[in-house]
Amino acid sequence: MLSAIQIEEAYKGFISNLPKNAHDGIIFVDLQSLHGLGLLSLIHDEQDNRDNLTQYFHVVESAEKVTLFNEQFVVWIVPRMERETPTTFILISLNHQDNLNLEIVFSTSGVYNTPRFVLKILQHFLLDVLETEATLLSMEKSQ
Asked: Which of 21, 51, 62, 74 could form a disulfide with 69 if both were Cys (CB 3.0 to 4.6 A apart)?
């Protein structure tokens, strides 16, 4: 597992030039993106899922950010003010052989900038990364 210093160094590298390091760009969460991701029904689901993937992380909180990490992922939740609007940037990095690869960056603001929304969207993207990795691994094994 990566050390706290390695995780912090990776964060500084990613955040220093976020538009360049987010290879698929920053996903700005709004009604259209929620609809496109098929998350509208999940966002309004009031059930508390105790098997939620996001519960299986170590958490480190600082004044600048919250860092979630486990053997598969490192996630940084970074609150900021963007044009006088509270905004949260979430960086999802895959921990692959103790090397962090930034996979997804999304941003929430306005009515979508609540812990409940952020965690549900995070859950969706974590599962998406796991499914993509499983597909890639399956393709590599078949070749």
From this structure: 74
